[in-house]
Amino acid sequence: MAETQLQVELLAHTPDALSLIYAAFRQCYHAGFVADMWPRLLNGEIPREKQADFLEQVMASGHVSPIEHVSFTFAAQGVSRALTHQLVRHRIASYSQQSQRYVDGSDFNYIIPPSIDGNPEARMLFLDCIQAIGAAYRDIKGLLEKAGSTKAKEDARFLLPQAAETRIVLSMNCRSLLNFFEHRCCMRAQWEIRKLAQAMLRKCREVLPEVFTFAGARCERLGHCPEGERFTCGRYPLPVNAG
Questions:
Q1: pTM of the complete model beyond 0.90
Q2: Over the stretch 27-56, which tens digit does the pLDDT of each residue have?
Q3: How far apart are CA 189 and CA 83, in angstroms?
Q4: Of 103, 113, 98, whose CA–CA distance to 137 is shortest?
Q5: Which residue in the list 81, 157, 184, 194 is annotated as catalytic?
């Protein structure tokens, strides 16, 4: 049992992502068959800069559905169950999460919130509780196994805390990712999922800057805070007509 840290890896993404989005956009406005254009996109006859300029103009108009044809798949570890309970609320996505039914939690790792980590007394209480939970899990699992149960891990997991580490693979298309970043890069988002979102956004920008350079919290795109006076963090001004 040990404290663990976030690690995010980009496993895969749709190949030729910019060209695929460009082709999908062009089919909406092009009289011909975009498949005839595809070889020219792949061999560079249509420059990347031209594709990017077209994307920027069309997306600025609010037409963004063609970016759904491109998806990214990430693997994350060093995240808590508290984080994944929030993450799976983003429903236009696919998730494959480490199961506490089948994976032995006897020596589970854990995540400590910064506010607790920075308070020596709170940290001591937190770690004492984590150790006690781990001991109780092992004892109960052992008792159930001794009694012949085939569900020992499945039932002992009821003791495991939200701080317990989990590992997860997640896939989202570009439109879902933009929505995810708008909500979870916000300063009002819970600190751990914001950290995950920021790590994912950095990797998306490396692959597809034409879509993700200006992605992030809504305030960064809008230039003002849309949360209203009650919820604003103060990073950006409220709209002039806010009241």
A1: yes
A2: 998 899 999 999 999 999 999 999 999 999
A3: 11
A4: 103
A5: 184
Which residue type is seen at 28?
Answer: C
Angle, helices 174-184/191-207, rounded to nearest 10 degrees: 140
Q: What is the DSSP string of the chain?
A: --B---EEEEEEE-TTHHHHHHHHHHHHH-SS-GGGTHHHHHTTSS-HHHHHHHHHHHHHTT--GGGGG-EEEEEEEEEEHHHHHHHTT--SSEEEE--TTTS--TT--B---HHHHT-HHHHHHHHHHHHHHHHHHHHHHHHHHHTT-S-HHHHHGGG--TTBEEEEEEEEEHHHHHHHHHHHSSTTS-HHHHHHHHHHHHHHHHH-HHHHTT-S-HHHHHSS-TT-TTT--SSSPPPTT--
- The Cα 46–Cα 19 span in angstroms is 9
Terminal CA-to-CA distance of the chain, rounded, Å?
50
Closest C-alpha among 182, 167, 161 to residue 116: 161
Whether 184 is a known active-site residue: answer yes
The residue behind tokens 């979870």 is 184
